[in-house]
Design a protein that fits this description.
Layout lengths: L1 H37 L3 E4 L5 E8 L5 E5 L5 E5 L3 E2 L2 H12 E3 L2 E4 L15 E7 L4 E9 L5 E6 L5 E5 H7 L3 H4 L14 E6 L2 E7 L5 E5 L7 H13 L9 H10 L1 E10 L2 E10 L7 E6 L5 E4 L1 H7 L21 E6 L2 E8 L2 E4 L2 E3 L1 H13 L4 E2 L9 E7 L4 E10 L2 E6 L5 E5 H12 L10
Antiparallel strand pairs: 1-6, 2-3, 2-8, 3-4, 4-5, 7-11, 8-9, 9-10, 10-11, 12-13, 12-15, 13-14, 15-16, 16-17, 17-18, 19-20, 19-24, 20-21, 21-22, 23-27, 24-25, 25-26, 26-27
Helix pairs in contact: 5-7, 8-9
């Protein structure tokens, strides 16, 4: 009985050992097979950097051919020579570099018409530096609309690809063309000339890369306004879907000239002529003609508004230029009263006595933000307020005189040809800040 029990135990042991051996050696293969079945197959895999030519053929549209120049820039060569939108082409290349399917519909399809693949809705030929060409064929959307049928030339299988993959490669000529009206480099612009309503404004960048009004100035410049003008010009895009070229050209011919902008960068100068058509400000429509591209196009309303500005709207209306740091000295003469505040280290002093830093900071903030409501044509006479701010370790001294004019005040900066009009409220607030400067708490040292 003992021998028989040992034999049974040995048989059970060998059976269990065999099962364990099979499990350990075959489970990874089973998992791999399962993982392979769950992983969508890659149906197109190319090196995007090696692609040099793309040929798109769509139903009821002329073929589009894009070629890559030696410089790396993509250009449209067919159906007509056009600049290409580099970001749009880059998006296509990214999709094509590793295009995965969602599932295999048929291994060997015999009726391609049912999938919209014969004739195809889209055929995309991809050529590279190795002269190898791959062809992607895209058909109809699936019944659910979440995917589309697709094939690769030389492969008999029909796949589905995600709708976003189809959208990424299914582009029209307008999708792929460069829609910039000015092709200058935004970082390299050195000059902008804006001619409108018998007035020419010229902007230039100084050695600190700051915009300055050169004509009719030189004038202090509102850097925000000038920077927005430069940005809107370089961001200007044609609205190709709004109307055909003939409609835009006819509208341009009958519209009122608004402005001509000339933008210069290291490559040269490009010109944009803008005209306005409309009966009211909110209903105005703007059209533009650029020296950089052929044709006339409707443009964004914001660009038209940005060009419809006079020189005063680009001028700096602030009375003081000292920066965010504390000035060295503030001297004020308000009527018969005089105030002199001097900074020493982190402390402020007046008449040899330490004053409360918080109240001085409030006064400094008021002076830093003091700005005119508009530029004035009034006569400047009999100033009653004199403000001088010294900053940058004594290197900058700004002097401003102010005189009462009816219900407002007119201010004049030293060595500035313009006059600034300020409200009485602004001066009252300044006087209030001066009056609230008080001695520091605790002994002065």
């Amino acid at each position: 009985m003992k021998i028989r029990g040992l034999i049974v135990a040995a048989v059970v042991f060998f059976i269990l050992a065999g099962i364990l051996y099979w499990s350990e050696h075959n489970q990874p293969a089973a998992d791999a097979a399962k993982g392979s079945a769950d992983t969508p197959p890659v149906i197109l895999k190319v090196d995007s950097s090696a692609i040099t030519r793309l040929n798109l053929e769509k139903k009821d549209a002329k073929p589009i051919v894009l070629t890559k120049a030696d410089s790396g820039e993509w250009k449209i060569t067919e159906p007509q020579p056009l600049r290409a939108d580099q970001s749009a082409v880059s998006g296509m290349l990214s999709t094509l570099s590793s295009l995965s399917s969602e599932r295999v519909v048929e291994d060997k399809a015999t009726d391609l018409k049912q999938y919209g693949l014969e004739p195809p809705g889209l055929q995309l030929d991809v050529s590279g530096t190795n002269n190898r060409m791959q062809k992607l064929i895209v058909g109809d959307d699936t019944p659910t609309g979440s995917a589309a049928y697709a094939m690769v030339s030389g492969d008999p299988r029909v796949y589905t690809i995600a709708t976003y993959s189809k959208t990424s490669v299914d582009k029209s000529l307008n999708d792929l063309r460069d829609k910039r009206l000015l092709t200058v480099n935004p970082e390299k612009i050195t000059r902008i000339e804006l001619a409108r309503k018998n007035q020419t404004i010229v902007f230039g960048r100084n050695n600190k890369n700051e915009w300055q009004i050169l004509k009719p100035g030189p004038l202090r410049t509102d850097s925000v306004q000038a920077g927005e003008l430069a940005q809107k010009l370089t961001d200007a895009r044609m609205e190709v879907s709004s109307s055909d070229g003939r409609t835009a050209a006819s509208a341009f011919a009958h519209a009122t000239p608004l402005a001509t902008a000339k933008v210069t960068d290291e490559s040269g100068t490009q010109e944009l002529q803008v005209r306005k058509s409309g009966v009211g400000k909110s209903e105005d429509i703007y059209y533009a003609k650029s020296s950089a591209i052929d044709g006339i196009y409707k443009i964004n309303f914001d660009l038209g508004q940005a060009l419809d500005k006079g020189v005063d709207e680009f001028r700096d209306k602030k009375l003081f230029d000292f920066g965010p740091g504390d000035p060295d000295k503030v001297e004020l003469h308000l009527g018969s009263k005089a105030y002199l505040l001097i900074r020493s280290g982190g402390d402020w002093w007046q008449d040899g006595k330490k004053v409360d830093g918080g109240t001085v900071q409030s006064l400094i903030s008021n002076l830093r933000d003091l700005a005119a409501d508009k530029f004035s044509d009034s006569r400047f006479a009999n100033p009653t307020i004199d403000v001088r701010v010294t900053s940058d370790d004594g290197k900058r001294v700004e002097k401003v005189l102010m005189a009462k004019s009816n219900d407002a005040y007119v201010a004049k900066r030293e060595n500035d040809p313009g006059l600034f009009e300020l409200s009485s409220t602004a001066i009252e607030n300044l006087q209030k800040e001066v009056d609230e400067v008080k001695p520091a708490v605790g002994p002065s040292k």
